[in-house]
Amino acid sequence: MKWSVKFMMNFRTDLALERRDLYRKANNIANEINGLETQEETIGENVKVTRVKVLNEEGEQAIGKKKGSYITIDIKDLKIAGEDEIQKASEAVTKELKALIGNLVADQDDILVVGLGNLYVTPDALGPKVIQDIDITRHLLTYMPEVLEQGTRPVSAVSPGVLGTTGIETVEILKGIVDNIHPKLIIVIDALASRSIERISSTVQIADTGIVPGAGVGNTRKELTIDTLGIPVIAIGVPTVVEAATIAADSLELFINKVQEEGHSNEFLNQLKEEDKYQMIKEILAPEDYNFIVTPKEIDELIENMSSVVARGINFATQK
Amino acid sequence: MKWSVKFMMNFRTDLALERRDLYRKANNIANEINGLETQEETIGENVKVTRVKVLNEEGEQAIGKKKGSYITIDIKDLKIAGEDEIQKASEAVTKELKALIGNLVADQDDILVVGLGNLYVTPDALGPKVIQDIDITRHLLTYMPEVLEQGTRPVSAVSPGVLGTTGIETVEILKGIVDNIHPKLIIVIDALASRSIERISSTVQIADTGIVPGAGVGNTRKELTIDTLGIPVIAIGVPTVVEAATIAADSLELFINKVQEEGHSNEFLNQLKEEDKYQMIKEILAPEDYNFIVTPKEIDELIENMSSVVARGINFATQK
Amino acid sequence: MKWSVKFMMNFRTDLALERRDLYRKANNIANEINGLETQEETIGENVKVTRVKVLNEEGEQAIGKKKGSYITIDIKDLKIAGEDEIQKASEAVTKELKALIGNLVADQDDILVVGLGNLYVTPDALGPKVIQDIDITRHLLTYMPEVLEQGTRPVSAVSPGVLGTTGIETVEILKGIVDNIHPKLIIVIDALASRSIERISSTVQIADTGIVPGAGVGNTRKELTIDTLGIPVIAIGVPTVVEAATIAADSLELFINKVQEEGHSNEFLNQLKEEDKYQMIKEILAPEDYNFIVTPKEIDELIENMSSVVARGINFATQK
Amino acid sequence: MKWSVKFMMNFRTDLALERRDLYRKANNIANEINGLETQEETIGENVKVTRVKVLNEEGEQAIGKKKGSYITIDIKDLKIAGEDEIQKASEAVTKELKALIGNLVADQDDILVVGLGNLYVTPDALGPKVIQDIDITRHLLTYMPEVLEQGTRPVSAVSPGVLGTTGIETVEILKGIVDNIHPKLIIVIDALASRSIERISSTVQIADTGIVPGAGVGNTRKELTIDTLGIPVIAIGVPTVVEAATIAADSLELFINKVQEEGHSNEFLNQLKEEDKYQMIKEILAPEDYNFIVTPKEIDELIENMSSVVARGINFATQK
User: Which of A128, B84, B169, D114 has the most CB atoms within 10 Å of its CB?
Assistant: First the structure.
């Protein structure tokens, strides 16, 4: 079947919103894709929230994402953000996250926050960095409840490391912890791949469907979902890398469009537009050996700012 | 009972060797303590190995350590160590560790290495730093066995974090992982308290009895032993902190000794020697509010050198 | 002469305030020392400001500090400080610093901020860490003045490193920079030694007399003063280390006091009080080889909080 | 004039070797460019050394590099290098560097090593990281000459920071230090831009002409050369970033070549090849706002490995 093949090969992004846009473009769909429902909201000048709902199997097939909610928060100019912008962006995260949590568990149900990734690989360090700033209450409720307000929710947090440095699948570590401490909900933070360098560390995707770590960049691991962990999993993903071949393919598309606009249009170029440029670029680049995954030069600061946004967003969403 | 009280209040060290020395001194025991067995070995000019065996309950009562082997490796001048000294010290660790492992599990049995501590608190960062340098094979044996030699032992490694930043007892996290990945042996690395600033990051204690994290500095946690985890636990501990009150008490003892040697001896000073100077110092210091735990100024480099020693020691002990 | 000898050997602290207290105690001076002038102020519940002025040579002889102003800001519980306490403490720094700057240079005169110390030695990392957070304007005034408000003062900042890692005296590096960029004032940030573990990273000393790096801990370097650099030097010092022998000596003093209060007083103990206990302790400890310089276990976090206090204090003091 | 314009706009690389290749291709030059002289050497399986000499003004005009030697050491698979590869690569650096040093100064002449860049921006951290591992002798020769071998050369090292964090031009800082400590030669380490992601942290360029920091990525600063500093400057540069637009333009070129090979050739595509694709891509990309500078995801480890290579290379080249 045509599209299931395309989806396996093509999206090169973990963002449901980007997949939706790619699918609509590729199939010349002017309105909504069958099986999806999308809603947009603009907050102030710098924040845009897009809520994509995958309603059924048809929607799943189209964009290769499980049935559920995928909320994208795009934050303009977070890269040069001051304290105010970080605060506003984190409030947007809090609002969306709080709504999803409220749908899944009760007010004082135990939540485990999980920071995926490798602290020593800058574009992969977001998860562990967020964990450092999460307000942990579970142990205080046990040992010194008097220091907490009445009704505080138990929150705990771990950075399980990555397969390459632990030798253990993340799902194995988390399953063990879940079985021992019995949280009611997991919030997982992960770094994602995107199509767009612009979105690097400027976008947050919140999904109530869990995640498959590393899905966006080709190294599939066992998924972290209600199916594998037995409790609901909310995934907070932030794009931090882009494939070099994606940059090449996207710029090639822009280039062909420009050429055609300028009247150089001809049969051959039209035909090119029909083809899978990403695949062609991949093949062309392969012998040159630069199928690299890249990240902006400023990634250290981007990760720093974004981990403040996400940590605050979680802290206010998990407590009253 | 006099001594069980003394042991609860007095040792201020996690090292079995220091406890033995303190107990012998306090009780004027010239030879070995009943219930202990001690053996010393000197390797080259800079390494001294002392093996203290706690044989029975009498030994346990005396030094407050479980029945089992406690091997102390003192490395002279590790602080200013070059590559050669680090290599020699790590070989001493390998030799002792290999013997203990051989007593507990078979050659290809799965081992989980656990780095306790907090990466962001320098004197507590040894465990997580060692984990970074452990040669992990468990995932390779699953996914790419062809890159490994025949007979490679599966080794995995985690840094579970500390209660204060996770909200979860270490034993809860480890129990979960053990139940899911079924290793046959755990090696735990932890930072310890010692009586002696000289020993900071110059001494390694290897014990086949597991550990109680934080035992040395007053914040007891649930123990990590075969009783709580269901498999044998080897503990590798390195002193990284000393209590300020210990420095004060020890120097006071030295002072009184000096005074008496010089003939100023008198009834009052003799009486002082009988008393629990540590407790008195603690009481005197309390209103001044400096019951601090301290570490040498050079702790960053000490931790760096020692984590190389321990990681290499483990890597060579776990593989042929 | 008795006291000049004592001062060379005894103070073991870089804080003028502590030296004054030690001198008064040693000499049983109930009121002010000749040649000094002291003023105290309490701000809110947690901040105490003490301004010691060394008026003349007699004052210089007494406490071994150059003629000038030494302002000590003690901040209670900075160790567990939240955002509010850090803000209040930084405001106290700003106020005192602004007054000193106003005495020395005009409103728009060029200032160079210098962070002494070694980023890789935690208790010595304060200077380099503060530099990261200084608001730099000098290059913007040259290249993009339009982004700055009218009347912005040119501020630049360097971390010159330490002799052990550069091979160059700090004064040589700074002299070169001063000769090339011609600032009108230097503000130097440095880590100090104190008598008191309590003061570690809880106290800021601001002096208009410059500094001799490492003076407090025995490794004297060439001084950084108007005499060596040709322009006024304000020194901001924060205690981050204590000598182990100081802990021992001070606790011994407390001990002897306690013993005497309890009526055990006798000729010998009285005589001890007259003597130089620090020196005796040093001698006793020497063969044991633990003349260590120590720092609290929590030094990473202490340095983090204090570098926020100092950086903000400087930023608001250097700009309107 | 055509070529001077092209060189200003086009090379997008700091490597003389890449500029030479681009120039030859653009001008269909089969042999050597007038004014250049090139020599290649292969060492073992993994190291290739190319020595480009710019002989005169004609060569300067062609590749926009000053008269002098530009030695490129390409190291295959440094990314996954073990201890052996790092050692071999550093030996290649030592050999080339030693020859250049020998041409410029005498055996015991004082050398100052300068690590340019920003420690907190991973792809820009190479310089400061190398400095940490340089064997410094200048202060020992002054204070403890007895610990050094006879004939040790005085070596010192600084990391002056970057304009954005100091507010001071690097040349102003270095001029000051040179005037005060009078070294006879400066070795500067800097991160470069390259055309090729493959070369990121796999290539070292050594030049005896000094450098203009940031030249490759558009933010020109005052040059560091014998003209500005008064003593010879050897520059060691390592590519760590690539412009996203370069990836796009290079892949577009590959794409057009492929299309033509496949017989789709036509007038329009031929014409495209003549044009400045980089400029066109830049213009197309501009409205999309992704004129980013990127670096591989693995940059942390690449920098770590390469800084070992360079530091060892320098240490063995500066001492006998």
Answer: D114
Contact flag B252-C247 (C-beta cutoff 8 Å): no
Residues of A in contact with D246 (CB under 8 A): none
Measured CA to CA, the distance from residue C310 to residue C131 in angstroms comes to 10
pTM: 0.89
Helices D244-259, A277-285: axis angle to 10 degrees equals 90
Interchain CB distance below 8 Å, C293 and B294:
no
Close Cβ partners of A102 (under 8 Å, ≥ 6 residues apart): none
Chain C residues with CB-CB distance to B242 below 8 A: 294
C-alpha A178/C-alpha A197 separation (Å) is 36
Which chains neighbour B (Cβ–Cβ under 8 Å, 3 or more pairs)?
Answer: A, C
Q: Which residue of C has its CA nearest to B265?
A: C268
CB B92 within 8 A of CB B68: no
Q: How far is A244 from chain D (nearest CA, A)?
A: 7
Strands C68-75, C111-115: pairing is: unpaired
Q: Is D152 helix (H, G, I), strand (E, B) or coil?
A: coil
| Both structure tokens of A17 | 């919103």
- Interface confidence (ipTM) of the complex: 0.86
From chain B, the residues in CB contact with A166 under 8 A are: 136, 139, 156-158
Q: Do D294 and A197 touch (CB under 8 A)?
A: yes
**Sign of the C-alpha dihedral computed for residues A252, A257, A261 and A265 taken in this order:** positive
What SS3 class is residue D22? helix
DSSP A154-185: PEEEE----HHHHSS-HHHHHHHHHHHH--SE
Nearest to B66 by CA among B275, B279, B232, B181: B232
| B96 vs B89: CA distance, rounded Å | 11
Contact A93, A207 (CB under 8 A): no
Of A159, A166, A179, which is closest to B176 when you measure between CB atoms? A179
Domains by residue range for chain A, with CATH: 5-245+293-318 (3.40.50.1450)
CA gap B207, B70 in Å, rounded: 4
Angle between helix D299-318 and helix D83-104 axes, rounded to 10 deg: 50
Site of tokens 């009481």: B283
Report yes or no: D66 and D228 within 8 Å, Cβ to Cβ.
Answer: no
How many angstroms away from the CA of D97 is the closest CA of chain A? 29
Report yes or no: B117 and B191 within 8 Å, Cβ to Cβ: yes
Which structure tokens are listed for C261?
């209060």
Of B155, B167, B178, the CB nearest to A136: B167
Distances (CA, A) of A166 to A225, B169, D80, D257: 21, 20, 19, 45
Scanning every residue of chain B, which has its alpha carbon at the shortest distance from the alpha carbon of A114? Answer: B166
Output the tens digit of pLDDT for each of chain A's 320 residues: 333 333 333 577 889 999 998 888 888 888 899 999 999 999 888 889 999 999 999 999 899 889 999 999 998 877 666 788 888 899 999 999 999 999 999 999 999 999 999 999 999 999 999 999 999 999 999 888 888 888 899 999 999 999 999 999 999 999 999 999 999 999 999 998 888 877 888 899 999 999 875 444 444 458 999 999 999 999 999 999 988 877 777 777 777 776 666 665 566 666 666 666 666 666 665 544 456 788 888 899 999 999 999 999 999 999 86
For residue B217, which amino acid is it?
V
Exposure string over B38-63, b if 16+ CB within 10 A, otherwise e: eeeeeeeebbbbbbbbbeeeebbbbb
Residues in chain D: 320
Half-sphere exposure (CA, 13 Å, Cβ side) for B40?
6
SS (H, E, C) C148-182: CCCCCCCEEEECCCCHHHHCCCHHHHHHHHHHHHC
SS (H, E, C) B170-215: HHHHHHHHHHHHCCCEEEEEEEEECCCHHHCCCEEEEECCCECCCH
